Amino acid sequence: MEKENCPCGSGRPYADCCGPYISGKSKPPTAEALMRARYTAYATKSIDYIVQTCLRDDEHGIDLEATKRWSENSTWLGLSILRTEKGGPSDDEGVVEFKATYIQGGLRENHHEKAAFVKKDGGWLFAEGEVIPETVVREGPKVGRNDPCPCGSGKKYKKCHGSGGDK
Predict the structure, then answer these.
(1) DSSP string, 66-112
(2) Which of 118, 117, 122 is nearest to 81 (CA)?
(3) Of 22, 25, 29, which is closest to residue 1 (Cα–Cα)?
(4) Contact, 98 vs 130, CB < 8 A?
(5) Neighbouring C-beta atoms of residue 164, cutoff 10 Å
(6) Which of 1, 26, 63, 134 has its CA 20 to 30 A from that of 143?
(7) For 105, phi and psi rounded to 5 degrees?
């Protein structure tokens, strides 16, 4: 993995990008760099890094088992940074809006989130995230139950593919 491109999408080798952060050799200088490293940690199943870079308190703990399942049961396809707000080397807080694309259970998913980060003891931590729901857009016209089935069978949709079984 050292010479392969980093999963975060930077186009740089893992060893020169998120690798040093995940290994603990250095700290991400910005909130965006931490976001990219956390995505890479999910993609490389480096659960310890995800836990270590999460601001936790008694109210907002991390569900370790759910985090582990999500990481291990997904095929991570890419990260897109949509926008950043503050989060630079001299800031103490920042926001990164991103989309992480992955496949889980045979379905392609886009995880769209606005994530808040804080700097504590010279290092960035994930504070909280707001998941932004994706609107599903139909690609073609809606088929009514009494319309002809689009499969070409000549039957009404409700008597063909609209019946719950593929006939």
Answers:
(1) HHHHHHHT-EEEEEEEEEEEE-STT-SEEEEEEEEEEEETTEEEEEE
(2) 117
(3) 22
(4) no
(5) 7
(6) 134
(7) 60, 30
